[in-house]
Amino acid sequence: WVPMYLRFGSAAVATQRASAWSASSLDVALLTIVVQLGFALGAFLLAISGAADVVDARILLAGGAAVAAVANLAFAGLANDVVSAIPARLLTGAGLAAVYPVAVKVLSGWFRAERGLAFGILIAAITVGSAMPYLFRAVGALAGAEWRPIVASASLAGLVGGAMLWHGARPG
Description:
The chain is an all-alpha fold and 172 residues long. It has helices at 4-12, 14-21, 25-49, 51-54, 57-78, 82-96, 100-110, 115-138, 147-168.
């Protein structure tokens, strides 16, 4: 699940980033918490607006992935300390709120029978997507790279995921 790269990209490089910024362990945790708060805020706004019921799922899925990817790219390119990173991480979480819950809705429409299997595959994909930033950091061209290119590559993967959702997601 490509957009999940964005949520965990920061955590995968937390030790490198903390060293570069002379950040405390509380600062590192704060950036993870801010993504979760952004997700909760975005999900709340989608719920009270009813957007998931009236806006085409492809627009929400691709748009949410794009917002999260651009915010994550801003984090990689512009953040120089924890305070300057917070808005980008908050917006990353908010963008992802238009991806996961909407994907669950789309999936529910496609699978009346074997819905449990479909959700199991979705959860497995989320798990793989969550692990990918760690793989980016450990293997291949980005192994041992500074933290910014790793986070930026997760952003590019998020944009690709958004494009895939735009072209592949259809209401059931």
